[in-house]
Design a protein that fits this description.
Length: 297
């Protein structure tokens, strides 16, 4: 799929915003039950992750916790990356967070500070099961940003070695500037705040984002990697994904492979070039160059 030209991006962004508002409305009126629920944890275990009998090896001493994005879940977001890491000898775990009452399958919609508390509980469970002193976190979109709250405010820095974000909205998003149009959609802001606070929290300049980034992007003792794509149509401008601070490595996917056309969803769900860079961040002592050929690795 070729990237769209600049002129086509605003209409696509408008469609993204319209789809977002329709999704929020669907969530607000949802009365469905778990009939359409996500696959169970047993499904993930059968694929080699969320296996609590796994013990980290000397080569990979820290379990990896995968944190899905908004509207995602612990299985679908990681159908490619989780086995990719398991096949390389890692103990891998994923959680669901931010679920709203009465809304199955879709997660990451609740208040982000509460979601960070769920991550804190999950990390403690993984550490207790594996006996490891620390975990490494890999997150997509909100899942790459939300752990920053855990690290800054919930004591996570003592339990996390590295945070690797795939298209994380570390400073919120403007949706190509269209979040500024929310006041012109009657009731849209109220809809976001009341029914999907996790979305409202991610708007650039929101109270949550302001508090999260006050005092700097990072905390001591944690290694940070941000992997972004210039074709991101959800977290915009894409350079706002990057972090400032010590122990930070910001990576633009197209600097590694100019032919990579992945956008926001693809970089977190199927892009093996990005995944090769994730492995490099997890084990920098044995890192190998990431190129367009890494797609077959």
């Amino acid at each position: 799929m070729l990237p769209r030209n600049r002129a086509s991006r605003p209409p696509r962004a408008r469609r993204t915003l319209a789809a977002l508002l329709l999704a929020v409305a669907a969530v607000a009126t949802s009365t469905t039950t778990a009939a359409a629920a996500a696959p169970t944890a047993a499904t993930a275990t059968s694929r080699g992750w969320n296996d609590y009998s796994c013990k980290p090896s000397a080569a990979h001493p820290r379990p990896v916790v995968l944190v899905h994005g908004t509207f995602g879940n612990s299985i679908d977001n990681w159908l490619v990356l989780a086995p990719y890491l398991v096949n390389r000898g890692y103990c891998v775990y994923s959680l669901d967070y931010g679920q709203l009452p009465g809304v199955p399958f879709f997660h990451g919609l609740g208040p982000i500070d509460e979601s960070a508390g769920q991550l804190a509980t999950f990390v403690d469970e993984v550490l207790a099961a594996t006996g490891a002193p620390e975990v490494d976190l890999v997150g997509h979109s909100q899942g790459g940003m939300m752990p920053n709250h855990y690290l800054k405010f919930l004591g996570g820095a003592a339990k996390v070695n590295a945070l690797i974000g795939l298209a994380p909205d570390n400073h919120g998003t403007t949706l190509l500037g269209l979040t500024k149009l929310l006041p012109y959609f009657p009731g849209a802001e109220d809809l976001l705040n009341a029914h999907t606070p996790g979305l409202a929290d991610q708007v650039a300049g929101s109270p949550f984002m302001t508090r999260l980034n006050a005092g700097g992007d990072t905390v001591p003792g944690v290694k940070y990697t941000v992997i972004a794509t210039r074709y991101d149509e959800v977290v915009t401008p894409y350079r706002t994904q990057f972090l400032d601070g010590p122990n930070v490595r910001n990576v633009l996917l197209q600097d590694l492979c100019p032919l990579d056309l992945s956008e926001h969803v693809a970089i977190g769900t199927i892009d093996r070039i990005a995944y090769h860079e994730v492995v490099n961040a997890l084990d920098p002592a044995h890192a190998t160059p990431t190129t367009c050929a890494s797609v077959i690795g």
